[in-house]
Amino acid sequence: MSTAITYLIAYITEALIAYYYLCHIFESKRSANNIFFTYTLVYGVQYLCSFSHIMVLNTISFVITNFILIYFLYNSSVFLSSFHCLIMTIMMGISELLAANLLGSIYYDYSYADFRYVLFVIYYLISKTLYFILLLFITHAFTQKQKSNITLGKSSILLTIMPILSLVVMLSYFQIAKDISLSNKHELYIIISCICILVINILIIWLFEYTKNKQKTILHLELELQAHADAIQYNKILECQDEEQKILIHDMKRHLQSIMMLSQNENFTQVNEYIENLLATPSLSQTYKPTHNKHLNLLLSKYITLCKANNIDFKIDAQNTNIDYMANEDITALFCNLIDNAIEAATSIPNAIIELKIVDKKSASSTIITCVNSCRTAPVQYSDNLFISQKKHPDKHGIGMRSINKIVKKYSGTMQPYYDDIEKKFHTIIVLQYEQ
Fold it and tell me: What gap in Å lies between CA 21 and CA 76, rounded to an integer?
């Protein structure tokens, strides 16, 4: 009975680890109920096969059932299903061999008189913890390579510290149970403690993933709200421009009369100035669409108005560029942070400028984004592409540049910022890669 419970705990743990691994590698194509039923069926078969104590049968059942699991539940080809099934099998074998070596090359045979159940349980839990750690690292490697939307990142890699520390605790428990003769009650306490440690590890990983997904949802909603706000502001600009044009048309007769009077008096200099001032009015300016991307135009319209208010000459050269391969939230994060930093540096500088240029290099499947802005002094660099903020509390800032770095890495790009001390300008050159 005790052995059956141990196997049950082991296979439930394996199922949870497999679910975590496969959900990060593949995209599911079945409903949650179908996934739960299939996992229960697949690992139920493995659980029943385990009572034969035949290693070959257990290995074959592990390979076949996991292949069925991957192929029928996830968007995967026969080759990929076989490949990842093989990886899981190899990692399982390595984890059991490592556990055996760490515990002194033990092998449990129920016919032995000195068989101790507590050591058997701890061995199983240690091997499953090692299996979990190995698949965590492999998951990180594959998601980084594929540039998946769900990536572990550096913070997630730190989560492997918990399973490693748990492994140390379990090894300590094993040595205690092996070297000291304990009562059945104390052995039960050790078993329960090891099971709780393993469950805590799984819960921590699950909580981290749940929190990360919730934060992603919240960020997506915030970006949508920002996009709606930009669209509203852009429409207000168009409405104001339309109203000013109506007023100009209404007053055009008077303007023409004034020009005629000046020309009759041969005040040609004043005529030229009058016409130039008239042409410079916002009422006669056309609707400005600096790029072919509607979302970026909405964002830039806000900054065009903001730069005018701060006496900054904002020049944009992006007419022949297509950035539609970028998600709207990535466009918002990249360009808003880039231009916000430029405006902050250029504000209150006489004859300040910001030059934004976007060039599409189709031959290299890349987009080059250059932002040049006036800047009084060279910022102090403290890390790769990160600079000490000039704000009152610099330790609370710098998030914008980290956000830009994140987007650049997502599109397999590079970023090179530098300061031109002669022209007193800060340059940011970004190269993004895309698939044609």
Answer: 14
Share of the chain above pLDDT 70, in %: 76
pLDDT tens digit string along 275-297?
Answer: 777 666 655 554 556 777 878 88
pLDDT of residue 374: 92
Judged against a pLDDT cut of 60, whether residue 145 lies above it is answered with: no
Decide if 131 contacts 200 (C-beta within 8 A): no
Mapping DSSP onto H, E and C, the string for 147-207 reads CCCCCCHHHHHHHHHHHHHHHHHHHHHHHHHHHCCCCHHHHHHHHHHHHHHHHHHHHHHHH
Residues 356 and 323: beta-carbon distance below 8 Å: no
Higher pLDDT, 430 or 381: 430
Cβ pair 66, 18 in contact under 8 A: yes
What are the residue ranges of helices labelled H in 265-346? 268-279, 294-309, 328-346
The radius of gyration of the chain from alpha carbons, rounded to an integer in Å, stands at: 33
Domains and CATH numbers, the chain: 2-223 (no CATH), 289-436 (3.30.565.10)
